[in-house]
Specification:
about 160 residues, alpha+beta, globular
Length: about 160
């Protein structure tokens, strides 16, 4: 393994892993339409993130990181080094994910996902860390549309 890896930052924060339910069926109907709706929704949501930011979250969270692969969406909300987790931060992330959930559900695209909290490693191409693993395990334990939280690492 090459030890001269690109710069990575290790932070604590929240990671959401979201999956489009019924993606295979939706893609069989019209692949390009589904891709277009996903891309358009993300385009609509990114400016909403900026407008949703408030003084209570500014300085506590770094920039949100989006990664998409087919029907999987990964969103990282890394904390600033001195950004304490508080109720406002949790509400902000919930509102953000709720907006994505509702915008897609309005287009008949349901999501299932989970949010984990712990370490996040932001690489050049991916988002890694225990927060990702925690979200993945929570997601795999569910069987219904919605967004679940695995926040055991907060305690």
């Amino acid at each position: 393994m090459d030890e001269s890896s690109p710069n990575t930052d290790i932070d604590k924060g929240f990671v959401a892993i979201l999956d489009v339910l019924g993606f295979g069926r939706l893609s069989e109907q019209d692949q390009s339409a589904v891709a277009s709706v996903l891309e358009h929704t993300i385009d609509r949501l990114l400016p909403m993130f900026d407008s949703m930011s408030s003084d209570t979250v500014t300085g506590r969270l770094k920039s949100t990181k989006f990664r998409m692969f087919s029907d999987t969406i990964v969103i990282a909300f890394p904390r600033e080094p001195n950004g304490a987790v508080n109720q406002d931060m949790f509400h902000f992330i919930s509102d953000y994910l709720g907006s994505l959930f509702c915008l897609l559900l309005d287009q008949n695209i349901p999501l299932r996902g989970a949010v984990g909290y712990c370490t996040i490693v932001e690489g050049k191409y991916g988002i890694y860390g225990k927060a990702v693993v925690d979200a993945k395990y929570e997601y795999e334990a569910t069987s219904w549309a919605g967004i679940h939280y695995n926040l055991l690492s907060l305690t």
